[in-house]
Structure formats: C-alpha cells, structure tokens
Amino acid sequence: MKWKVEETPTQKESRLKDVDQSRDLAPGDKPDRLFSQPLSFEEIKEKSDKFLVNNIKRAPVAFYFGQGEYLYDTENKRYLDFLSGVAVTSLGHGDADFVEALREQADRVIHTSNLFYNQELALLAEALVSYSFPGRAFLCNSGTEANEAAFKLARLHGQKKGNANRIVTLENSFHGRTVAGMSMTGQAKIHKGFGPLLDHMHYITPNDADMLEKEIDQNGHEMCALVLELIQGEGGVRPLDLEYVRLARKLTQENDILLILDEIQTGMGRTGKLFAYEHFGIIPDAMTLAKALGNGFPVGAMVIAEKHCDLIHPGVHGTTFGGSHLAARVAYETLKIIVTRDLLDNVAALSDYFFRRLQSAQTTIKCIKEVRGMGLHIGIELDRPGAGVVETCRDRGLLVNCTAETTIRLVPPLNLSLESAAEGLEILEGVLRELK
Ligand SMILES: Cc1ncc(COP(=O)(O)O)c(C=O)c1O
What we know:
Largest sheet: 7 strands, mixed
Bound molecules: pyridoxal-5'-phosphate
CATH topology of the largest domain: Aspartate Aminotransferase, domain 2
Strand content: 15-25%
CATH class of the largest domain: Alpha Beta
Helix content: 25-40%
Mean pLDDT: 95
CATH architecture of the largest domain: 3-Layer(aba) Sandwich
Radius of gyration: 22 Å
Low-confidence stretches: none
C-alpha cells in the first residue's frame, strides 16, 4: 500500500484558501472569541505552581492558540515555533485536514479497546509497515512505552537465543523515563536517585568502532540487542557516523543480536527521509516511534521486522489505550499528509537553507562551535550554556530550546515556509551575534 503525492501547487493554494477562516489570523489579531473565559497568565501560573507535581521548570509563558508555524500566548504575543513541542507538531498547528480527521473520528468513535478489531488501527499498521519494512506494528501511547515494548522484545529474543540478556546502548543516549527507558538511557543524571535499575545493561561510546567490535567480540553471545538513536536528540543532536552504523548492522546480524533503532525523535520525516535509517542504507530488526507520529496526539509505536514477529504472541504484552480508533486515525492522517503533500521535499530544501545559512553564520559569530544534524533536526553547539539564548529568542518571538546544556536545537515544522525560516534565523543570529 502506497500513497501518491496528491498536491499540485494549484491544489495547495486552493487548500490554503479553504482553511477555516476563523483560524486565519493576521499578526496582531487576538483570537479571544474562541475562548469564553481565558485565564490570565498569572492565574495559570499560580494554579500550576500550586497544584502540579513539581517535576519540571517551565518558561513563564502559556500558549492558547496556534496557526501553522505560529503560536500565540495569553498576552496575544506571537511566536515563531522552531520547537514544535519538542519535535512533535511536525504539521504545524491547526492543519485543516488533520483537525478535520481528528474531529470526524472523535465524533464517530474514540475507543473500544484492543479486545476488538479496529479499522483505523488496521489501516495505520498497514501504512507503517508499507512505508518502513515488512513486518508488524504494535501501537502504544508514548516514546518510553514504545521503548519498553522494544526492551521486552529484546529480552524475548535473548531467551530464545539462550539466556542472552545483555542489552547494549550508547553513552549520552536518551530512551525515556520508565524504568526500562531509563535503564537503556546512557546518562547518569537520568538514573540518579532511582537505582537499582534493570541489570544486564551496558553502555558504549558512540562512533567508537573499536569499542563496538570489542564489545560484540567478547560479549556478543550474551547480547540480545543493540539499541541506537541514529541522531542523539536529547544528547545534543549528535548524528552517528555512516560507517559506524553499517558496522553495527553487520556485527549484530552476524551475532544474532537485534538492532533496535529508537526513531522516536528522528522518525516521521524529521531528517528528510521518513525514517532516519534510510540515510544509512540499513534495515533494523525493530524500530520505535512516537513524538511526531500523532502530530501532537499521544501515539507511540514499535515496528518489528517479519523475522522476529513470532517473538510476540497473545498474552506477552498489551495496552489499554494503545492504538485506539482516535489515536490510530490521527497517526494515519499525519503520515498520509507527510506523503501526499511531499513534505520530505520541503524538508530537503529547507534543510539546505538552514545549514548553508548557519554554517556561514559560524564564520562570523564566535560563540558557534559547530552546526550538526540532518534535515530539520538541527543542533547549534555553543561555546557556553544555551539557556540565556533560548530566553532572549523567546522574548523576541522565536521558540527554540537547549539540549545537553550547550546545544541550541531547531526542530521546526516540516511544512515551514522559506520566509518563516529566514525570519527565525534572523532573530537567532541576532541573539547569538550580541553575545560577548
Ligand atoms: C530518542 C527518544 N527516545 C525516547 C523518548 C521518550 O519519549 P516520551 O517522552 O514520549 O516517553 C524521547 C523523548 O524525548 C526521545 O527523544
């Protein structure tokens, strides 16, 4: 099953004209007619600070409306969104086709449980498999849950292989916050306070081919899986080398070890291919997805290659919410929009623009040490902590974030326009240029 690019430039123009006019705001318009009683920012902050579990430091802003690549806060200030809810809302905000599918499905049926067949889930699984590799899909609700499923798959493979429980991941990786997600994550700061975590976990240095070879040579018989992010997202937008990934594929294949790719941040077109592994000329044994899969609606998935599908049979894993009619429908619609509007083409063109402009900025802006990434998954390594840059950009109407202390991360929507890309880079370069 495959879709065709459906949209000609004329059709695109007419689609944009047809967009619900009530969402079509001119800069400076206040869309308050949509909200009968919006709280002020102070009220939102007061309630949040009093009643929410204090697990995260929030920036002093609350959004209440989004349109395309723009968000509006409670003071009606407009922001250009280069963060996309941390690589999630890849179609931007309020996409008419996406919202229509969500509304239509919510109206018809939202959830019936996995005790029954479900058309939307069947179609989504077919689409995910058709666009990745032959196999089967499992649907859940978040990235960490997808990795939890992958962890169980790995251990099942290890049992079949013969008490091979060792799972190897990379230092500086991030795989989520559940116990298995944390255990797979190669960062002491994420583990701190929760030990003892799961055992038979081991972390190796990214892009160190000798270490990888040595690890598999010595411990391959005990290993059930090698888990990789092809670009370490939370770890500072650090891509793995092509040769390293190919070597990893070769050695895992030779030693009956599952190669599991965490494509939670890199998947669904973010890097210019639907899945990042396509850049590396390899096929994994399994991959996990979440983030942009539902364009903001919580959906996670694990896709397993055909050869390993019989590891999972009724009773070994499950979920109440995963793959509900609504979740499956929005994920299906998101994938369909990415393909039929040829958004990967837009990612390639914009990526070229971002990298050329940022690399040229690097020659004159002293605090930029390196520009890394792929597609619209971009990291700007600074010679100092980036929190202040994020704050000043936000004050000037641009949303970005900082990961791994010193990396400014840009993950704008895949359908960003060239004009908006230029607008955002103008702000960012201005802020970086002013740094002493
Ligand atoms: C590569 C990767 N894996 C897993 C996760 C965890 O996903 P979630 O926050 O949906 O549980 C993230 C989240 O940032 C991620 O970037």
